[in-house]
């Protein structure tokens, strides 16, 4: 960053190293910046080429797709699993709860490691655990349901390492609108992977006549992902996109990181909104195919499932709806964010609020029209899922721009832990427990099976409303917190200086700690 007019020899100019530590001349939160200053200037050499950065995003998206395919394959064959192990709704929901619990418990550990050690190696190790345990889940016999639960819990180890770290790598490869676009692409693969999980799970179970083969597809595809991760994914310096490849260094303890995050109002409130979204999506994603199947039995459109394999039609349709609404909602949400961000500083949390608040009446209507008209039910499910999907990329982008680069992995991990602990770790099980409790209040019939699940799912729209309120509260603080998190400062071009003058930005000198210059007025 040599000032114009200077003829000082390059070796006489200290090489800047961006730092947010307390000993640095550039203090965190002390300057105001805009996105234009975070874009590499012409002639500057980026640490990672754009082509390699795009390839890395493609690899991360592929693995993200497989993660969510594997997660929701269980939901796609849930009726088969219930018949195979002879378990009720609440016990069946423990499969998802066991997975999510290990996921949330280990996320803080991987967040801590991801802010301090090589992120690529951490993801490789986690992916290896994921491959072995996911494949092992397909080998469990009917007398060992506890082993299936244990293996599902261990699958969460791999996903915790990946889901915590991958978004921060994308955040260090891109900045500004490019980052928003790449985050959008990455998070679109959550609903796409979820939908394909229903479809492939039900399809493979139908073709092979054995639901366990459905659990073997994603581990096989995961071997390809592991190879691509090893050879094509870089480990960029933290904050590389904001500092033109230099990276940001900061010396802070894990406790200091947590204190910083808890004082960040936008982060805390948006995390509560994400938690409500996770609760809503977790319960609906796990139970909707089962609910639609019971609705068709209630209407006399199909016979109840007595032996496996069960009718996969609802898993196919719901999976396709999830894929389409995920792509449509994700692109629409990101487009709205990019359109309004420069016009409305708090546009992002408002988009998330509209998505959750708008989805609540749609889901409420879908639950009650299911007893009369299945196509109408799918229409309202479609609209509700589009509105929920507005949030995926926008929620992730909020975290990346209200948190400093060196604390993003910890922020991701803490958010994952909270949103799963209070969200989708318990929501499938809670809905199952309520359904079983309602069912026991009357003699069991197919009609009452349907009604009991319907009444238990009414919890979801109300949680969506609560989440919308949290995002509305986030809108009051987002502009201020975003400004504080920008680690660089955009200044007017400095006037011509004589050869003895120093650069105009206060930086930390790697060599001797001297200040490289003073901030211009």
Description:
GO terms for molecular function: transmembrane transporter activity. Keywords: Membrane, Transmembrane, Transmembrane helix, Transport. It is found in: Membrane. One of its GO terms (cellular component) is membrane. InterPro entries: MFS (IPR011701), MFS_dom (IPR020846), MFS_spinster-like (IPR044770), MFS_trans_sf (IPR036259). The chain is mainly α and 521 residues long. It has a single domain, classed as Up-down Bundle (Growth Hormone, Chain: A), CATH 1.20.1250. It has 18 helices and two strands. Strands 1-2 form a two-stranded parallel ribbon. Helix 3 packs antiparallel against helix 15, helix 9 runs antiparallel to helix 13 and helix 9 runs antiparallel to helix 17. The protein starts with 17 loop residues before the first strand and ends in a 36-residue tail after the last helix.
């Amino acid at each position: 960053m040599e000032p114009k007019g200077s003829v000082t020899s390059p070796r006489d100019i200290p090489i800047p190293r961006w730092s947010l530590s307390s000993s640095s001349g550039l203090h965190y939160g002390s300057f105001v910046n805009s996105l234009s200053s975070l874009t590499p200037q012409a002639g500057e050499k980026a640490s990672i080429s754009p082509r390699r950065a795009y390839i890395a995003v493609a690899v991360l998206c592929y693995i993200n797709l497989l993660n969510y395919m594997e997660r929701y394959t269980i939901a796609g064959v849930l009726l088969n699993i219930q018949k195979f192990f002879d378990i009720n709704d609440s016990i069946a929901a423990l499969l998802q709860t066991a997975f999510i619990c290990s996921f949330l418990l280990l996320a803080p550990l991987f967040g801590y490691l991801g802010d301090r050690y090589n992120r690529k190696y951490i993801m490789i190790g986690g992916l290896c655990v994921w491959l072995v345990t996911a494949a092992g889940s397909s080998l469990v016999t009917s007398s060992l349901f506890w082993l299936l639960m244990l293996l599902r819990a261990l699958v969460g180890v791999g996903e915790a390492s990946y889901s915590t770290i991958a978004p921060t790598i994308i955040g260090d490869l891109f900045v500004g609108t490019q980052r928003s676009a790449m985050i959008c692409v990455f998070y679109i693969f959550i609903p796409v992977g979820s939908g394909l999980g229903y479809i492939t799970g039900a399809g493979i179970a139908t073709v092979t006549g054995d639901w366990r083969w459905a659990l073997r597809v994603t581990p096989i595809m995961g071997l390809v992902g592991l190879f691509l991760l090893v050879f094509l994914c870089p480990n960029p310096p933290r904050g590389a996109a904001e500092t033109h490849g230099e990276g940001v260094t900061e010396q802070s303890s894990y406790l200091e990181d947590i204190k910083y995050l808890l004082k960040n109002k936008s982060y805390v409130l948006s995390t509560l909104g994400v938690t409500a979204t996770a609760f809503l999506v977790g319960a609906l994603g796990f139970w909707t195919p089962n609910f639609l199947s019971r609705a068709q039995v209630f209407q006399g459109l199909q016979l109840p499932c007595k032996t496996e394999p069960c009718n996969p039609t609802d898993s196919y349709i719901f999976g396709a709806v999830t894929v389409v609404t995920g792509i449509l909602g994700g692109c629409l949400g990101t487009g709205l964010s990019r359109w309004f961000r420069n016009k409305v500083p708090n546009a992002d949390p408002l988009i998330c609020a509209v998505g959750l608040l708008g989805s609540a009446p749609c889901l409420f209507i879908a639950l009650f029209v299911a007893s009369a008209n299945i196509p109408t039910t799918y229409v309202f499910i479609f609209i509700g899922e589009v509105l929920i999907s507005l949030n995926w990329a926008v929620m992730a982008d909020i975290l990346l721009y209200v948190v400093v680069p060196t604390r993003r992995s910890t922020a991701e991990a803490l958010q994952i832990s909270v949103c799963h602990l209070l969200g989708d770790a318990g929501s499938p099980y809670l809905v199952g427990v309520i359904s079983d409790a309602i069912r026991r209040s009357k003699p069991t019939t197919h009609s009452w099976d349907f009604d009991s699940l319907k009444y238990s799912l009414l919890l979801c729209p109300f949680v969506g409303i609560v989440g919308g309120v949290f995002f509305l509260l986030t809108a009051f603080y987002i502009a201020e917190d975003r400004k504080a998190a920008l680690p660089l400062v955009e200044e007017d071009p400095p006037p011509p200086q004589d050869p003895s003058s120093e650069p105009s930005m206060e930086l930390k000198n790697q060599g001797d700690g001297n200040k490289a210059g003073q901030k211009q007025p």
